Give the backbone structure.
Amino acid sequence: MSEKKLHEDQKYIDGLLKNNSFIIQAIYDKFVPKVINYIKQNSGDGDKAQDVIQDTLITIYNQASENKLQLTCPFDAYFFILCKRKWLNELKKNSNKEVTINEEVLSKDDEAQELAFETAVFGEKQVLFTEMFQKLGTACKDLLTATFKIKSMEEVAKSLGVTYAYARKKKSLCIGKLTELVQKSPKFNQLNN
Amino acid sequence: MEDQNYILFESYLSKELPQDEIIAFESRLKNESDFNQAFNTYKELASFLEHKFENEAASTAFQNNLKTISKTHFEKQKPAKKVGHFKLWKYAVAASIALLIGIFTFNDSPNPTFSDYNNYEAISLTVRGGQDELLKAAEDAFNNKNFITAEIIFGQLLAKDNSNKELQLYRGIALLEIDKFDEADSLFSRLSNTQSVYKSKAIWYSALSKLKQKDFAACLEILKTIPKYAEDYKEAQNLINKLE
């Protein structure tokens, strides 16, 4: 991936990451109308389109800030495929029917397709991880929250009234517990294959 | 997977293993697929958690800003309501009502309102280094008039460094914007009792807070304490004239 040339549309990714209102506005002006049309033509409406677009942009933002998203294709294609995929999944969820992604778009821009796929998997993993984190016991949730918010393990131990060694050990066991929950979920195996 | 392995993952990721153990660890990664899979999931989860909590404030600020832009965009899309057959006489009635309102308002000479004074210049906080991301998020939220978000982030920043008077002032303004008057007033009054460059600004804003609460007498009283050298002195005199 690193050898591929960065597309000039990376500016949209960087703008989202910096919470730049002008860039967000530009995305809505330039790329969103096409998505709204598509959703409206495929059993959706304006409100549904608004949600799909918002969720998609949040996923892109999250991936960019955690994984340093490098755009190697036009933003337009990448964003459209992502929104479309999300909308089709939404339809599938509500109708219990198998919905497949249009082949025409699949072959149109492989690079965009590949990148959009990575982002979509990232987004679905985030949802799954958040869900599993909620399943942890309160002690683990509190410890992990403190660990990643405070950063210094010494301070975490102090704030929880335990020793440094104990806090450290507990941290690895809690992430371990989360690892097990995630690995056991069928959704995770689907996403990883 | 055994507990011991998770402890090992953590030590490896935080680079605390001695060289010989690193070699042994990496060879297990190559040869034991369960071990490898568990490690990769562990690593992914650690990165997820780190990001989730570290960027909470910036992420909330982004989402709020996005929602505002999205809402405006989609409201523009909705077709305007049809005017229908609006007969001429209705225009006449509307015009007379407008005229009456105009006369009443003119005679009444309305009191000045808070919204005449809340045009803030864009603030810039990110030159100091350090907690850059959070500061940037606060700055963006404030400049985009997302005062709910701004107030939350200022609160978080002040939890780390409660002595920063500039942040205290901005937090006060954000509180004032979202009508949390008690908190705003007590912040401004604390600030106006300190010897800092923000002293007279704080007095000015505590007057504006009274104005927003329509307590004109209290507003006047505070305005009169703004010293001549203060940046807002002229504006304050103006407001005094309108109120008296």
